[in-house]
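Subject: design request, 196 residues
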C-alpha cells in the first residue's frame, strides 16, 4: 500500500461527537505491511476519531518497505475531541522505517473550518508498545517516537515502551527537544536497547 495499512476511524468532528459510537475491541494480527514509497504508517488511528477509539490490540505483525514511516500513528488535533485509549502494540518487528516506531500527531491538519473550534480537546492515554523491535538492517536518524503536540491543550498520558530494540543515530530524548514536542504525562521506558 502507499498509505496507512490499517486505518481505524470513528467519525470526524461534530459527526463523530454526535454519533458517540467508538471503534472498539479491534484485533490486528499476523499481518505483513509493506509500503514501497508512501511515507505512511502500518497502523493509524484517526485523524477522524471524534467518536473515540479504544481497546485495539495489534500483535505479531511485520512492517517494512522504503515508504514505511511508523508502525503506529495516532493523529488528531486540538479541536477534534474524542478519546484514543488502551492501544496495545506488541510482539512485532520493523524491517525498514524512514522515521520511527510511533508518531503522536496532535497537530494534524483540519480540512475545512470545524464547528465550535477550540472547544473540544482530544484525549490520548494508555498506549502500550511492548516487544516491538527494529531489525539490525534499520537505519534512521529519527528517535523511536516522533511527536507533534504543541497545539493540543491535553497531555498525552500513560505511554509505555518496553522490551524492545531500536537502531537509530538519535537519542530517545531528542524526540522532546523540539518546541513542538511537549504535553506528555507519565511516560515509562523499560528494558529498551538503543543501538548506535
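Subject: RE: design request

Done. Sequence follows.
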Amino acid at each position: 500500500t502507499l498509505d496507512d495499512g490499517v486505518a481505524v476511524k470513528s467519525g470526524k468532528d461534530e459527526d463523530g461527537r454526535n454519533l458517540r459510537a467508538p471503534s472498539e475491541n479491534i484485533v490486528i494480527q499476523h499481518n505483513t505491511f509493506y509500503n514501497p514509497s508512501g511515507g505512511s504508517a502500518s497502523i493509524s488511528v484517526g485523524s477522524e476519531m471524534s467518536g473515540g477509539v479504544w481497546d485495539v490490540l495489534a500483535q505479531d505483525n511485520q512492517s517494512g518497505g522504503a515508504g514505511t514511516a511508523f508502525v503506529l500513528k495516532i493523529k488528531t488535533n486540538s479541536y477534534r475531541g474524542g478519546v484514543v485509549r488502551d492501544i496495545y502494540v506488541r510482539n512485532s518487528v520493523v524491517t525498514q522505517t524512514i522515521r520511527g516506531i510511533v508518531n503522536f500527531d496532535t497537530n494534524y491538519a483540519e480540512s475545512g473550518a470545524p464547528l465550535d473550534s477550540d472547544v473540544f480537546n482530544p484525549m490520548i492515554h494508555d498506549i502500550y508498545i511492548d516487544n516491538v523491535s527494529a531489525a539490525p538492517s534499520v537505519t534512521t536518524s529519527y528517535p523511536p517516537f516522533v511527536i507533534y503536540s504543541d497545539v493540543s491543550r491535553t497531555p498525552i498520558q500513560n505511554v509505555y515502551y518496553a522490551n524492545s530494540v531500536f537502531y537509530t543515530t538519535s537519542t530517545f530524548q531528542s524526540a522532546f527537544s523540539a518546541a513542538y514536542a511537549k504535553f506528555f504525562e507519565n511516560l515509562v521506558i523499560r528494558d529498551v536497547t538503543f543501538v548506535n
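The chain has a mean pLDDT of 92.
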